[in-house]
Amino acid sequence: MTNFIGFENLDRIDYETIRGEETRCYFCKNLCIRTFIDLRVNGDKKRYIIATCDKGEVESKEALKKLMASRNKLKEKYPNFVEIANKLLFKSYKPPQVIKNNKFINLFRKKKLETLKNTVVGIPRVLNTYSLAPFFRTYFEALSVRKVVFSDFTSEELYRRGSKRGSIDPCFPSKVAIAHVHNLLFEKEGINLIFFPCVRTLPGEIYKAEGHWACPTVSATPEVVKASFTKERDEFKERGVLYLDPVLDFEDEELLERQLYKVFNPLWGITKEENREAVRLGFKALREYRETLQSKAKEILRRLEEEGKVGVVLLGRPYHNDPGINHEILDEINKRGYPVFTIDSLPRDEETLYKVFGKDVGEGRIENPLDIRDVWKKCYSENSSMKVWAAKYTARHPNLAGIDLSSFRCGHDAPIYSLIEEILEETKTPYFTFHELDENKPSGSIKIRVETIDYFLKRYEEEVLKKKAGEVLV
Amino acid sequence: MKILYGGLTYAHDFLIKGAMKRLGYEVEPLPTPDNEALKVGKEYCNKGQCNPTYYTVGNLVKTLKEKREKGEKDVEKNYVFVTAGACGPCRFGMYEMEYRKAVRDAGFPNFKILTFEQSSAVLEEMGEAGIRFDKDFFLSLMKAVFLGDLINDLYYKTKPYEVIPNSVDEWKEKALNMLYETLRKGKSILKTLRVIKKELDKVKVNYFQPKPKVKITGEFFAQTTEGDGNYRMARWLIEEGAEPIVEPVATWIEYLIYEKILDEKEKSFKNRKKAFKNILLLKALNAYVRGLYNLYRFALGNKPDPLKSQKKIAEYAHRYYNVRLSGGEGHMEVGKHIYMIKHKKAHMVISVKPFGCMPSTQSDGVQSKVVEDLGGSLFVAVETSGDAEANAKSRVLMKLYEARMRAIEEYENAKRKLGITDRDIEIAMERKKKLTSAGTKLPHKYVSTAANALLLVK
């Protein structure tokens, strides 16, 4: 079915472009001016609306309601796990309080406990926070701080307002951290502690990995941020804020416990047991976050298999969940009816893992479904390893396609660019790249690319998945 | 089977060849990576890599292709490439995979890449049972590296002050040849070093030229290479009338040991006995490394600088850049900057980093605060991308002018304070032979060589 009006009608096209007060959109507080193009061919009239967002693509409130209802319905059926993850990541897991009501001990730490109860912790919503936020929030809440506040999601305005202090040019996800701390320091109320740890290693998932290192740019960012705010004068001190950026190792729970104790015992007088319990609850929240995400994703994956439809896996780093870093590419894809999975959301229950990797294990290519040594020997960078593993997962599941997001200057992505491509091409899995993303959001080109992806995936669903389903039936 | 290797300076690579020959290996150092290697690297590596990847990987592929073009048969069978490996966190650890990808894509799918970490079992499996990365191998390698460090140190200390053009280059060539033979034949290194020192004594210099001392620091490859990878920075600085200070590779070895000790200390709560034993062993190794380096220095009249204390570097850096942050040079770039200024070792510090270097870029992020806290030290960070050489050098030149002014001011002040006139210097140079000898170890009170030489006038 085509919408092409035919060559004979091309000469008869008449159109009028309208742009002005009459085209202003009132569906949100941005009040954008839109462009209406009224097209007439052989007496038929059609209006095209060029708007900055979907809401502006309709003219009446009724039409908007209808549009949103259909979008929401579609989204419910084929959700965007980036959005779901962002809700689950930063919510409170409501842990029990771990500070003991021991009158004797509390007598000696009365002042410190008071400080603890009055502490409002600010955490920049950047980098590894996108994989560890449930741990941090729960840890602090279990210790009964007054409140945990995250900075806002990245946006052009947030970056513009707070990035002036930067003196180097690393990748955008690192560069934007200064703006997030600015957001916490100057735009959020009551924060008296900014916690931005140098996370050196991450909780390891990969089987027999050489290591679970975080990216060195990411690990060192808190130090750069500290220097930026204390260069000419100590802006933290001026605002009565304590800035803490300890080195933390998440691959080693015992070590992590000691590292946190070393920081917070002198400050709040917490005991080793209280600290240990808070750490345990932190990890429990982290597990809960992942399990919730994965069980929902399993449901959707099954639906895709049943319906012969395709879903998209975001092959990226945890911070690509940030709408200001991923430039809402994934929302655009999701709006077209494709569920979007994050790496964290990919189901890892035994049944699914053996369905996806069973053949490799059976044939001895790998020892475990989370083994990537068959394709990548130097698996020491946890986020890179997970990206490689997710690419293998995507390549082995017929209902998945890959979207590779990578930020400009990403040093750990560069060595695996061709590897990811090879893995997905090996099984002829649809694979699209958005590499070298930075602070500029090329909305126009994103829309065009997504339209192309949509077209390709539709063909893929029609021609490949249906055929495969047919083959299975035969 | 010939072993290909490379990546350090000409002096290091040449001496390693001598040491390896004694162990019975046929070795061939790769040439210094140039912009042609960079081009080849960009052709065969993944996009978005850091410069050292392109230079070093490109250098290997370029050499293999040249061999094939010259008509050499069985290049894949007749050569292996040996390199250092790592397990993170920066992408240096992934170079091994990049080497493999590049040689495969360039038409050498069976060419073997070996890393020092490979055990004899793995080597045997790979059909390389003849190669042994054992104690003898590493000890020979270490000695060659230290000797390369010391010759380079002396070269850059004396070359800017040579009276007869190229006399220091001739001495260097002679010294390297002597050491090469010594290492190849397994003769006494100390004896050879003493002869080399005597040869250096014969080289005539004029120390009384106030030149700015410029420390070259930064990412390991970028600060070490002598080619296009850092725009031939050290040689160019000499041409511009400065005295460059290069970093010995031995500092890197000490840094690795120091980091390992910190690791052991941090995790000692798990098994105190084991940690104590490991720390003791590492400290013994460090004492051996330092002792060997100092022994060689002693034979050269203690003129080369001693290795900087890792503890001190860490102590200086920690306030700005946590010493437990690994990757690249870690905290060392920051620590060295402070060390060179506080200990009056340099007028200016250049931090050379290749495009895309992750740890080095981050540590630069705190350097502006360090500059501020040091009361305005002369620091310039240069990113090397292979092109934009004029741009990078003009940035260095701007700071170099200030450094030169500081060196001149310091020299004139010292002259005034010591009551020395130009005529006194002329007379002293005629009378005291050691004042014109390249082998003389100067006292250290001022930053510049010229001002320190004044201390020997009276």
Please sum up the structure shown:
With 474 residues, chain A is α/β, with parallel strands linked by helices. Helices cover 49% and strands 13% of the residues of chain A. Chain A has three domains: 63 residues, no CATH class; 205 residues, no CATH class; 180 residues, Rossmann fold (3-Layer(aba) Sandwich).
Strand order of the largest sheet of chain A: 5-4-6-8
H-E order of chain B: EHEHHHEHEHHHHEHHEHHHHEHEHHH
Give the number of DSSP strands of chain A.
Answer: 13
The DSSP helix count of chain A reads 19
Q: Could you describe the 3D structure shown?
A:
The complex is a heterodimer of chains A (474) and B (458). With 474 residues, chain A is of the alpha/beta class. Chain A has three domains: 7-69, no CATH class; 84-288, no CATH class; 294-473, Rossmann fold, CATH 3.40.50.11900. Chain A is built from 19 helices and 13 strands. Chain A has helices at residues 7-10, 61-77, 81-90, 103-108, 110-117, 129-142, 156-162, 172-175, 177-187, 216-230, 235-238, 253-268, 272-307, 323-326, 329-335, 350-362, 382-396, 417-426, 443-473, and strands spanning 14-18, 35-41, 44-50, 120-123, 147-150, 193-195, 198-201, 242-244, 247-249, 311-315, 340-341, 400-407, 431-437. In chain A, the strands form four sheets. A four-stranded parallel β-sheet of chain A has the order 5-4-6-8, with helices on both faces. The longest helix of chain A is centred in the middle third of the chain and has 36 residues, at 272-307. Chain A is globular and about 90 Å long. The mean pLDDT of chain A is 92. With 458 residues, chain B is of the alpha/beta class. Chain B has helices spanning 10-22, 35-44, 51-69, 75-78, 95-105, 120-125, 135-158, 167-185, 189-202, 220-224, 233-239, 249-266, 272-299, 310-318, 332-342, 358-373, 389-418, 422-431, 449-454, and strands at 2-5, 26-29, 79-83, 112-115, 213-218, 243-245, 348-354, 378-384. In chain B, helix 7 runs antiparallel to helix 8 and helix 8 runs antiparallel to helix 9. Chain B is globular, with a radius of gyration of 23 Å. In chain B, 48% of the residues are buried. The model of chain B has no long low-confidence stretch (mean pLDDT 92).
